[in-house]
From TrEMBL:
<dbReference type="GO" id="GO:0016616">
    <property type="term" value="F:oxidoreductase activity, acting on the CH-OH group of donors, NAD or NADP as acceptor"/>
</dbReference>
<dbReference type="Pfam" id="PF13561">
    <property type="entry name" value="adh_short_C2"/>
</dbReference>
<dbReference type="InterPro" id="IPR036291">
    <property type="entry name" value="NAD(P)-bd_dom_sf"/>
</dbReference>
<dbReference type="InterPro" id="IPR020904">
    <property type="entry name" value="Sc_DH/Rdtase_CS"/>
</dbReference>
<comment type="similarity">
    <text>Belongs to the short-chain dehydrogenases/reductases (SDR) family.</text>
</comment>
<protein>
    <submittedName>
        <fullName>SDR family oxidoreductase</fullName>
    </submittedName>
</protein>
<dbReference type="InterPro" id="IPR002347">
    <property type="entry name" value="SDR_fam"/>
</dbReference>
Amino acid sequence: MTERKLEGLKVILTGGSKGIGVHYAGALIDAGAQVAILDVADGAELASQLNASQQRDAARAFHVDVSDEAQVKTVVDDVISWIGDVDVLINNAAVFATLGDAKVTDIESALWDKVMAVNVRGPFLMVKHVAPLMIAKGRGKIVNISSGSAYKGLPFMSHYVTSKGAMLGFTRALARELGAHNINVNTLAPGLILSDSISANQEHLDTNRDRVVASRALKRDGFPEDLLGGLIFLCSSESDFMTGQTLLIDGGSVNI
Ligand SMILES: NC(=O)c1ccc[n+]([C@@H]2O[C@H](COP(=O)([O-])OP(=O)(O)OC[C@H]3O[C@@H](n4cnc5c(N)ncnc54)[C@H](O)[C@@H]3O)[C@@H](O)[C@H]2O)c1
């Protein structure tokens, strides 16, 4: 990506240390942003590679469990100490690629609660502690990551699909509530994307890959690179009059 549509913007990206998030971090930085990578997984090496490639203080990794309010509050303060401001929040962290297939009759309640805690409470806590900064300056963008599975249903992943459905309602409620403060809230919903992490989950690929590709208008696999144009659009001024919407990037599997 050569055009620097996010020049000077300060971005918080959750779940940026692994999988699709690594590609998001690289694209955001290529577009001119400074990116705080928040993750339970270590992102220090990724941040130093990105800084070396850009020859600037473009990325820093912060350890946080987004489901823990005390940690979220502290990490937002730490990000502010680093870059002083937040223009864009991307809620990408989720329990996903590590989930095995499970019948709804077999899912342990503790696992259900964990998926909801990370995938739903996490984005809520991030917004709770970042939105005040945006409200104070009367500007900001929030991008929640959902999934095409919230539209289509996906067997043996009812905990995950339910959590991603919640992002659609969360986005609409926030768009109404925060619009008065000139804060745009939108959802990016990818179809099945062959990130490094999901590619390591052979069971998930065996259950879903062929069926998903067959369902698409564009008969091919999806890759992290397919999402980058949409993400940058939702973070940039090009989407300034768009809020409460879902951008579905799935090769034409849903809603065509
Ligand atoms: N890959 C796909 O096919 C696909 C499709 C639709 C939506 N998505 C969504 O895209 C996002 C990224 O998916 P991915 O394929 O890269 O999967 P992934 O499981 O590799 O990515 C999740 C990231 O979140 C981090 N994370 C997990 N728990 C956390 C916590 N408690 N606090 C902070 N960080 C935490 C992980 O360390 C990881 O970096 C997820 O929100 C996922 O639901 C993925």
